[in-house]
Design brief:
- The structure is a single chain.
- It contains 3 helices and 14 strands.
- It has 280 residues and is mainly beta.
- The protein has a single domain, classed as Porin.
- Strand 4 and strand 5 form a beta hairpin.
- The chain is globular, with a radius of gyration of 19 Å.
- The protein starts with 14 loop residues before the first helix and ends with a strand.
Protein backbone atom coordinates (compact mmCIF):
# COMPACT_ATOMS: atom_id res chain seq x y z
CA UNK A 1 0.00 0.00 0.00
CA UNK A 2 1.55 3.28 -1.13
CA UNK A 3 -0.84 5.75 0.45
CA UNK A 4 -3.12 6.00 3.45
CA UNK A 5 -5.18 8.89 2.12
CA UNK A 6 -8.24 6.64 1.84
CA UNK A 7 -8.32 5.40 5.41
CA UNK A 8 -12.03 6.08 5.70
CA UNK A 9 -12.77 3.17 3.41
CA UNK A 10 -11.41 0.83 6.10
CA UNK A 11 -14.26 1.82 8.39
CA UNK A 12 -16.42 -0.70 6.53
CA UNK A 13 -14.17 -3.51 7.74
CA UNK A 14 -14.99 -5.38 10.91
CA UNK A 15 -12.95 -4.73 14.09
CA UNK A 16 -10.83 -7.86 13.63
CA UNK A 17 -10.02 -7.08 9.99
CA UNK A 18 -9.10 -3.49 10.90
CA UNK A 19 -6.82 -4.78 13.67
CA UNK A 20 -5.00 -7.07 11.26
CA UNK A 21 -4.70 -4.22 8.77
CA UNK A 22 -2.99 -2.06 11.37
CA UNK A 23 -0.70 -4.97 12.30
CA UNK A 24 0.44 -5.19 8.68
CA UNK A 25 0.83 -1.40 8.55
CA UNK A 26 3.07 -1.36 11.62
CA UNK A 27 5.16 -4.18 10.22
CA UNK A 28 5.65 -2.17 7.02
CA UNK A 29 7.59 0.46 8.98
CA UNK A 30 11.15 -0.11 10.17
CA UNK A 31 11.54 -2.78 12.82
CA UNK A 32 11.73 -1.47 16.36
CA UNK A 33 11.57 2.18 17.31
CA UNK A 34 15.36 2.08 17.25
CA UNK A 35 17.04 5.48 17.60
CA UNK A 36 13.98 7.59 16.86
CA UNK A 37 13.39 10.99 18.37
CA UNK A 38 10.43 10.88 20.71
CA UNK A 39 10.21 14.51 21.82
CA UNK A 40 8.23 17.23 20.11
CA UNK A 41 11.16 19.66 20.09
CA UNK A 42 13.47 17.45 18.01
CA UNK A 43 10.70 16.40 15.67
CA UNK A 44 9.63 20.00 15.10
CA UNK A 45 13.24 20.60 13.98
CA UNK A 46 13.04 17.99 11.24
CA UNK A 47 14.27 15.25 13.59
CA UNK A 48 17.46 17.08 14.62
CA UNK A 49 18.12 15.95 18.18
CA UNK A 50 21.87 15.27 18.43
CA UNK A 51 22.63 18.66 19.96
CA UNK A 52 19.80 18.86 22.49
CA UNK A 53 20.77 19.07 26.17
CA UNK A 54 17.68 18.03 28.07
CA UNK A 55 15.93 14.98 29.50
CA UNK A 56 14.86 13.91 25.98
CA UNK A 57 18.52 13.34 25.15
CA UNK A 58 17.70 9.89 26.58
CA UNK A 59 16.47 9.11 23.07
CA UNK A 60 18.37 11.46 20.77
CA UNK A 61 21.96 11.55 22.09
CA UNK A 62 22.71 10.45 25.63
CA UNK A 63 25.71 12.80 25.83
CA UNK A 64 23.26 15.69 26.18
CA UNK A 65 22.12 14.37 29.57
CA UNK A 66 25.43 15.50 31.08
CA UNK A 67 24.23 19.14 31.05
CA UNK A 68 21.32 18.35 33.43
CA UNK A 69 21.85 19.46 37.04
CA UNK A 70 18.39 18.73 38.51
CA UNK A 71 16.21 15.65 38.76
CA UNK A 72 14.02 15.85 35.65
CA UNK A 73 11.08 13.85 34.31
CA UNK A 74 9.14 13.98 31.07
CA UNK A 75 6.28 12.33 29.18
CA UNK A 76 5.05 12.50 25.64
CA UNK A 77 2.75 11.07 23.01
CA UNK A 78 2.66 10.99 19.22
CA UNK A 79 -0.37 10.09 17.10
CA UNK A 80 1.13 8.99 13.79
CA UNK A 81 -1.09 9.89 10.82
CA UNK A 82 -4.09 10.36 13.14
CA UNK A 83 -4.30 6.64 13.96
CA UNK A 84 -4.44 5.53 17.59
CA UNK A 85 -3.07 2.11 16.58
CA UNK A 86 0.15 3.85 15.53
CA UNK A 87 0.46 5.98 18.66
CA UNK A 88 3.71 6.11 20.63
CA UNK A 89 3.81 6.87 24.37
CA UNK A 90 7.02 7.75 26.20
CA UNK A 91 8.42 8.54 29.65
CA UNK A 92 11.92 9.81 30.51
CA UNK A 93 13.92 10.48 33.68
CA UNK A 94 17.30 12.04 34.44
CA UNK A 95 19.11 11.94 37.81
CA UNK A 96 22.38 13.84 38.38
CA UNK A 97 24.88 12.06 40.64
CA UNK A 98 28.51 12.56 41.57
CA UNK A 99 30.46 12.00 38.39
CA UNK A 100 27.64 12.18 35.85
CA UNK A 101 23.94 11.82 35.08
CA UNK A 102 21.82 8.65 34.93
CA UNK A 103 18.93 8.45 32.48
CA UNK A 104 15.99 6.09 32.13
CA UNK A 105 13.54 5.99 29.22
CA UNK A 106 10.57 3.91 28.09
CA UNK A 107 8.75 3.92 24.72
CA UNK A 108 5.73 1.91 23.60
CA UNK A 109 4.31 1.87 20.07
CA UNK A 110 1.30 -0.02 18.75
CA UNK A 111 -1.83 -1.71 20.13
CA UNK A 112 -2.96 -5.02 21.60
CA UNK A 113 -2.35 -7.17 18.49
CA UNK A 114 1.04 -5.73 17.61
CA UNK A 115 3.37 -3.50 19.61
CA UNK A 116 7.03 -2.59 20.01
CA UNK A 117 8.73 -1.49 23.21
CA UNK A 118 12.06 0.01 24.10
CA UNK A 119 13.59 0.51 27.57
CA UNK A 120 16.92 2.28 27.97
CA UNK A 121 19.29 2.90 30.88
CA UNK A 122 21.82 5.65 30.18
CA UNK A 123 24.81 7.30 31.79
CA UNK A 124 26.36 10.59 30.63
CA UNK A 125 29.44 12.50 31.76
CA UNK A 126 31.20 15.78 31.00
CA UNK A 127 34.83 15.02 30.17
CA UNK A 128 35.60 18.75 29.87
CA UNK A 129 33.76 22.05 29.61
CA UNK A 130 33.20 21.49 25.89
CA UNK A 131 33.08 17.69 25.53
CA UNK A 132 30.22 15.39 26.62
CA UNK A 133 29.84 11.63 26.20
CA UNK A 134 27.04 9.18 26.93
CA UNK A 135 26.20 5.48 26.65
CA UNK A 136 22.96 3.55 26.95
CA UNK A 137 21.93 -0.11 27.24
CA UNK A 138 18.64 -0.90 25.47
CA UNK A 139 16.03 -3.63 25.80
CA UNK A 140 13.99 -4.03 22.59
CA UNK A 141 10.86 -6.12 22.35
CA UNK A 142 8.27 -6.97 19.69
CA UNK A 143 4.91 -8.59 20.43
CA UNK A 144 2.55 -9.93 17.76
CA UNK A 145 -0.73 -11.58 18.69
CA UNK A 146 -0.76 -15.24 17.75
CA UNK A 147 2.97 -15.41 17.12
CA UNK A 148 4.63 -18.55 18.43
CA UNK A 149 7.83 -16.69 19.28
CA UNK A 150 7.71 -13.02 20.28
CA UNK A 151 11.16 -11.49 20.06
CA UNK A 152 13.36 -9.39 22.31
CA UNK A 153 17.04 -8.62 22.71
CA UNK A 154 19.54 -6.16 24.16
CA UNK A 155 21.82 -3.70 22.39
CA UNK A 156 23.51 -0.39 23.17
CA UNK A 157 24.15 3.10 21.80
CA UNK A 158 26.90 5.72 22.26
CA UNK A 159 26.90 9.48 21.74
CA UNK A 160 29.17 12.50 22.00
CA UNK A 161 28.96 16.30 21.79
CA UNK A 162 31.92 18.61 21.16
CA UNK A 163 31.84 22.41 21.10
CA UNK A 164 34.15 23.43 18.27
CA UNK A 165 33.78 27.17 18.85
CA UNK A 166 31.39 29.45 20.69
CA UNK A 167 28.75 29.33 17.95
CA UNK A 168 29.31 25.81 16.57
CA UNK A 169 28.81 22.40 18.21
CA UNK A 170 29.31 18.93 16.75
CA UNK A 171 27.26 15.87 17.72
CA UNK A 172 27.65 12.19 16.86
CA UNK A 173 25.68 9.09 17.82
CA UNK A 174 25.60 5.41 16.89
CA UNK A 175 22.84 2.94 17.69
CA UNK A 176 23.46 -0.83 17.71
CA UNK A 177 27.10 -0.53 16.57
CA UNK A 178 27.86 -4.25 16.65
CA UNK A 179 24.80 -5.28 14.61
CA UNK A 180 22.83 -7.21 17.24
CA UNK A 181 19.84 -9.04 15.70
CA UNK A 182 16.35 -9.42 17.11
CA UNK A 183 16.52 -13.08 16.07
CA UNK A 184 18.11 -15.15 13.33
CA UNK A 185 15.80 -13.74 10.65
CA UNK A 186 15.18 -10.15 11.76
CA UNK A 187 17.86 -7.49 11.95
CA UNK A 188 17.97 -4.52 14.27
CA UNK A 189 19.35 -1.66 12.16
CA UNK A 190 22.65 0.01 12.96
CA UNK A 191 22.22 3.79 12.73
CA UNK A 192 24.95 6.43 12.64
CA UNK A 193 24.18 10.15 12.97
CA UNK A 194 26.42 13.20 12.63
CA UNK A 195 25.25 16.78 13.00
CA UNK A 196 25.95 20.41 13.82
CA UNK A 197 24.27 23.20 15.74
CA UNK A 198 25.05 26.79 14.78
CA UNK A 199 23.92 29.54 17.14
CA UNK A 200 23.64 32.52 14.80
CA UNK A 201 22.70 34.82 17.68
CA UNK A 202 20.79 34.73 20.96
CA UNK A 203 17.49 34.16 19.14
CA UNK A 204 18.33 31.92 16.16
CA UNK A 205 19.78 28.39 16.13
CA UNK A 206 20.30 26.30 12.97
CA UNK A 207 20.54 22.51 13.04
CA UNK A 208 21.64 20.00 10.43
CA UNK A 209 22.09 16.23 10.65
CA UNK A 210 23.02 13.35 8.40
CA UNK A 211 21.77 9.85 9.19
CA UNK A 212 22.98 6.56 7.76
CA UNK A 213 21.06 3.39 8.51
CA UNK A 214 22.25 -0.07 7.53
CA UNK A 215 20.77 -1.19 4.18
CA UNK A 216 19.01 2.20 3.72
CA UNK A 217 19.75 5.39 1.82
CA UNK A 218 21.26 8.29 3.75
CA UNK A 219 18.91 10.87 5.25
CA UNK A 220 19.41 14.63 5.59
CA UNK A 221 17.66 16.71 8.26
CA UNK A 222 17.46 20.47 8.68
CA UNK A 223 15.98 22.53 11.52
CA UNK A 224 15.56 26.15 12.56
CA UNK A 225 14.60 27.54 15.98
CA UNK A 226 13.66 31.17 16.61
CA UNK A 227 13.05 32.52 20.11
CA UNK A 228 10.18 34.97 19.73
CA UNK A 229 10.64 35.84 23.40
CA UNK A 230 12.69 34.09 26.08
CA UNK A 231 9.81 31.77 27.00
CA UNK A 232 8.42 31.08 23.49
CA UNK A 233 10.24 29.21 20.72
CA UNK A 234 9.12 28.79 17.09
CA UNK A 235 10.52 25.79 15.18
CA UNK A 236 10.48 24.39 11.66
CA UNK A 237 12.34 21.68 9.80
CA UNK A 238 12.62 19.28 6.91
CA UNK A 239 13.88 15.73 6.54
CA UNK A 240 14.47 13.65 3.41
CA UNK A 241 13.96 9.94 2.70
CA UNK A 242 11.03 10.05 3.12
CA UNK A 243 10.41 13.79 2.64
CA UNK A 244 8.67 15.37 5.62
CA UNK A 245 7.95 18.94 6.63
CA UNK A 246 7.82 19.73 10.34
CA UNK A 247 6.91 22.66 12.54
CA UNK A 248 6.11 23.34 16.19
CA UNK A 249 6.24 25.54 19.25
CA UNK A 250 7.91 25.42 22.64
CA UNK A 251 6.93 27.26 25.80
CA UNK A 252 8.96 27.51 29.02
CA UNK A 253 7.11 28.14 32.28
CA UNK A 254 9.47 28.24 35.27
CA UNK A 255 10.88 24.67 35.41
CA UNK A 256 8.31 23.24 32.99
CA UNK A 257 8.94 22.86 29.25
CA UNK A 258 5.96 22.31 26.93
CA UNK A 259 6.51 21.35 23.29
CA UNK A 260 4.18 20.58 20.38
CA UNK A 261 5.08 19.44 16.89
CA UNK A 262 3.42 18.36 13.67
CA UNK A 263 5.09 16.22 11.00
CA UNK A 264 3.67 16.11 7.48
CA UNK A 265 4.42 13.10 5.32
CA UNK A 266 3.64 13.77 1.66
CA UNK A 267 1.67 10.52 1.28
CA UNK A 268 0.58 9.50 4.76
CA UNK A 269 -0.51 12.85 6.19
CA UNK A 270 -0.04 14.58 9.54
CA UNK A 271 1.38 13.29 12.84
CA UNK A 272 0.79 15.54 15.87
CA UNK A 273 3.01 15.21 18.92
CA UNK A 274 3.14 16.63 22.43
CA UNK A 275 5.79 16.38 25.14
CA UNK A 276 6.29 17.95 28.55
CA UNK A 277 9.16 17.87 31.02
CA UNK A 278 9.81 19.34 34.44
CA UNK A 279 12.86 19.78 36.68
CA UNK A 280 12.71 19.54 40.47
Amino acid sequence: MNTLSGFNKFNILGPQMRSYFFSILLLSFSLISSAQNYDAKSNALGGCGLLQNNVWSNFTNQAGLSEINQFTIGAGTENSFGLKELSTHTAVFALPVNGGVFGLNVAYTGFDLYNESKIGLAFAKKLSDDFNVGIQVDYLGVYADGATDNHNNFTFEIGAQKRLMRELTLGAHIFNPIGVKLNEDENIPSIFKLGFRYDANEKVAIFTEGELESEQNAKLKLGLEYKIIKQLQLRAGFSANPPQNTFGLGYTLNNIQLDVAVKRHQLLGYSPQFSVSSAF
